[in-house]
Structure formats: structure tokens, C-alpha cells
Specification:
It is built from 15 helices and 23 strands. By secondary structure, it is an alpha/beta fold. Helix 1 packs across helix 3, helix 4 runs parallel beside helix 9 and helix 11 runs parallel beside helix 12.
């Protein structure tokens, strides 16, 4: 973050600054009192299970120059000084106002803002773009999945004075969120990775999802750049043919400007031809990653990088945790795809696992959340896809997945279905399979916390020396 005066920050947030406060700079904005350092502005957030107001004294002791709060009065006492409380009605809204001020008045005009949205692949695409640009340009991307009304402001406020680019991830689970966050960012570059049946509980149907994601484009700056995956036809009516900038479409569709063909691969890698000319090799499983890589390629080209250079950098990309991260323990290959799940990404995972050697493929399916009344039918569709792919073992975890498997009344062909009500049973089921070489793909919504299962597998799978 570029340091800014506390009184400027207070005015931007609409927070009255107590009289008599000496001029001081804000060096960083944080929401976790445990990491506060000298010069930080501490934001006290409140949620269903936590209340940051309980930690303002700790933040003051650690060196905070001020605490942004929704209640309380008077300064916070700290050793040798008094730390002002900046009182606002809504701390998250005030943080957003601060981020807009920072982007408009503090951040250098030369910093290119890149916004990435989509139903699937946002974080992976964001990381790919960063991986492509970082060897050439100074910049940064949103940490983890900072893609909501808290994460986007914190990402904007992280930009440094020398950053040539900043990549912001934008998510949604209700109408209007993408537009609201995009208006805060005002990106030079907008990327829509894909659309699919995700967050149906809040967004309604696929047409509404397409409209929600496409709203990003109305906030891309004039003479900017937009990249859109057009493989789902529902997004096409929203293409801004009058967009005052450059528009590149990507995908398997013949109409795509950067068309993907000849997708192939294994459990170790994915390869494809881009634009009929470039052979792209990704060290990660899953043909669905081709569209993410194509979008990142387009952004790299817009920055002026040579195609061959971009292709070489993609060859060394490593996926973030929970997004098809592949590792081997003993004789078992595990694909950790536990960060999140919706019907399109779940079906993509099944298609990717189908490419693994036949005989010992295991798909661990956790519930897909926020699908509303259609949840049952989408879970049944995934179970049917696993059976149609000939995957040898399906382990279902969670009430909706279990019900979907049971509703098929054993009509799963040669696929063996193991029903597990919870992670303990899933771990026990996997333990019976671990004496031989297997490929285990684990996927479910973040709320299912299957990442815990992955961590436990790393300690439960026997090492080669222990295998009889």
C-alpha cells in the first residue's frame, strides 16, 4: 500500500476524525488484529460468529494508528498514546469508499487494473495471468479468493507505488454484486472466464448468471480490453459489440477469436492448440483449464508479450491449492479439487478423471451448495456422468450427494458406489483402496470442507515401504 494521511482516509470514509489528532500516515489496512503492525488502520468487522470490536484494544497495543469501528466512543488507550476510533454506520461500506478514493487519488494512473469474474476458473485464471506477467512486470494479484465486498477493497488497497498491474477477482452470489464491485475497480481489462450453473439459489437461472457476469463489461474503461469465454451461448447476447475498446473471445466454439482445438492430456497434464498455431502445455489435469489459459494468453498479448514467451510460462504454471493440485503419497495420486464445486466444474472434473488409466479411478463427490430447489437433479446428473464415464469407484459425501446416489437405485453400471454420511466414513472407505495404485479425485463445495479430508489422506496413505 502507498502510505496516505489518516485525515484523508477519514474524510474518504465519512468518518469524523477527533480533534487534536496529529498528522499520521496509514501504512496498511488490516482486518485481523493478530497481524496488526505499527502504522496500520485496523477495521473491526462483525459477523455471525465473530466481532472485531472485541479486539480494538489489542490492535491499538500492536501499533494501529486508528481503528475503524461501527460502535464505541472515545480513543483507545495504548501504551504512551491514544488511538482514535473512526466511527461509521457500516465498516465494510466505509472500506469500499476508502478503496475507491485510493484507486482514484493515490494509486498511480499507470497501474493497470485487471478484473476477473466467471462461474468457474476465476482464481486459476487470475494466478495464470500473474504467472505470465510477473517475470516481466512488477505487479500483484488478489491473495486467495478476495472476491467480495471485503476482499476487493483490500486488494485495491494493497497496490504499491511501482506496480504496473493489479489483478482483482470479482465473485457474486446475488444480483448486482458484480456491477457494484466492478464500479469500485473500474478496470482497464475485464475477463469473464466462463458461466455455468452456480449460486442458483441467489441468481435464479443460467440467463441471470450470464447477465450478472456480463455486467462487468459495462465498467471496463474506455479504450480498455475485454476477454470473454463464449462456449456457453447464454453469454453471447451480452457481448458488447459497441464496446469502446478491444474485445477478444476465447473457447472451443468455432466463432471464438482465440479458438481452442485438439485438447488432450492425462492425469499429469493438459495440452491443446490455440489459434491454430500455438501448442500449449499445462502441468495440471483437466481440459477445462484450456479456456482459462487462453484468457490468460490474451491478457499477456495485450500487455505486449510474445506468444512463445507466454506459452513457455504457462508450461511452468502450478495451480493454487484446492484447484486440481496434484500430489502423490505412496502409490496413490490425489487430485485436490476441493476449493469449490458447481455442476459444470464437477462434470469437468469427471471428464478429466476419465483420462486417467482405467482400473483404479476413484471420484470423491461432496455436495454442491447454493443450488436451491434444483440441487437434487444436478447431483443425480453428476452421479450419472461418473457411471457413464466408467469410473470404477464413486464415494459420495454429504446428504444431497448421498440422496442422489440412492435415488438411482443401483443403476450405475459397473461403477461401485460407496455412500458416506460424513468425512470419517469417507476416509475409512478410501483406506480400503489404498493398498494399490489409485487416482483419487476429490471435489465438493467449500462448505463441505473436503480439504480437511485431503490433509488427513496425506497422513493416512501408507508410504511405499509400508505396502506389502
Amino acid at each position: 500500500m502507498i502510505p496516505m494521511l489518516l485525515d484523508e482516509a477519514a474524510v474518504a470514509m465519512g468518518a469524523p476524525l477527533p480533534a487534536g489528532i496529529e498528522p499520521v500516515q496509514v501504512q496498511r489496512v488490516v482486518t485481523d488484529s493478530r497481524v496488526v503492525e505499527s502504522g496500520d488502520l485496523f477495521v473491526a468487522l462483525s459477523g455471525k460468529t465473530f466481532d472485531g470490536h472485541q479486539f480494538v484494544e489489542e490492535a491499538a497495543r500492536r501499533g494501529a494508528v486508528a481503528c475503524l469501528v461501527e460502535r464505541g466512543s472515545g480513543p483507545v488507550e495504548a501504551p504512551g498514546r491514544l488511538v482514535p476510533r473512526l466511527v461509521v454506520p457500516d465498516a465494510v461500506a466505509a472500506l469500499g469508499q476508502l478503496a475507491v478514493f485510493y484507486r482514484r487519488s493515490v494509486m498511480p494512473a499507470s497501474t493497470v487494473l485487471i478484473a476477473v469474474t466467471g462461474s468457474n476458473g476465476k482464481t486459476t485464471t487470475k494466478r495464470m495471468i500473474d504467472h505470465i506477467l510477473a517475470p516481466t512486470l512488477r505487479g500483484r494479484s488478489a491473495p486467495r479468493s478476495f472476491n467480495n465486498h471485503l476482499g476487493v477493497p483490500l486488494t485495491l488497497l494493497s497496490a504499491g507505488a511501482d506496480d504496473r498491474y493489479l489483478i482483482v477477482e470479482i465473485g457474486t452470489n446475488a444480483p448486482g454484486e458484480v456491477a457494484s464491485l466492478a464500479a469500485m475497480v473500474k478496470p482497464h481489462v475485464g475477463v469473464i472466464t466462463s458461466i455455468g450453473e452456480a449460486h442458483l439459489e441467489g441468481l435464479g437461472d443460467i440467463r441471470a448468471i450470464a447477465a450478472e457476469k456480463a455486467s462487468l463489461l459495462t465498467h471496463v474503461r474506455d479504450h480498455g480490453f475485454a476477454v470473454i469465454n463464449i462456449d456457453r451461448r447464454e453469454i453471447r447476447p451480452h457481448l458488447p459489440w459497441t464496446f469502446n475498446g478491444r474485445l477478444v473471445t476465447v473457447g472451443l466454439a468455432p466463432e471464438a477469436r482465440l479458438r481452442i482445438t485438439d485438447v488432450a492430456g492425462s492425469i499429469d497434464e493438459t495440452t491443446f492448440i490455440l489459434d491454430g498455431r500455438y501448442t500449449v502445455r499445462l502441468p495440471m489435469p483437466g481440459p477445462h483449464h484450456a479456456a482459462n489459459a487462453a484468457a490468460a494468453f490474451a491478457v499477456g498479448r495485450w500487455f505486449g508479450l510474445a506468444p512463445e514467451e507466454i506459452v513457455e510460462r504457462l508450461r511452468t504454471f502450478s495451480p493454487p491449492a484446492g484447484r486440481t493440485r496434484r500430489f502423490t503419497v505412496g502409490r496413490v495420486t490425489v487430485v485436490d479439487d476441493t476449493y469449490n464445486a458447481n455442476p459444470p466444474s464437477m462434470l469437468a472434473a469427471v471428464a478429466a478423471l476419465q483420462r486417467a488409466p482405467a482400473g483404479r479411478r476413484v471420484f470423491v463427490m461432496g455436495d454442491m451448495l447454493e443450488l436451491g430447489p434444483t440441487a437434487g437433479q444436478y447431483h443425480r446428473r453428476v452421479v450419472e456422468a461418473v457411471a457413464a464415464a466408467g469410473i470404477e469407484t464413486l464415494i459420495v459425501v454429504g446428504p444431497v450427494s448421498v440422496q442422489a446416489a440412492r435415488s438411482l437405485h443401483g443403476e450405475t453400471g459397473s461403477t461401485r458406489v460407496l455412500v458416506c454420511e460424513d468425512q470419517e466414513r469417507a476416509l475409512a472407505a478410501l483406506a480400503t483402496l489404498m493398498g494399490e495404485e489409485h487416482v483419487v479425485w476429490i471435489k465438493g463445495s467449500r462448505g463441505m470442507e473436503l480439504d480437511r479430508l485431503v490433509r488427513r489422506l496425506e497422513t493416512h496413505i501408507p508410504a511405499p515401504a509400508a505396502v506389502a
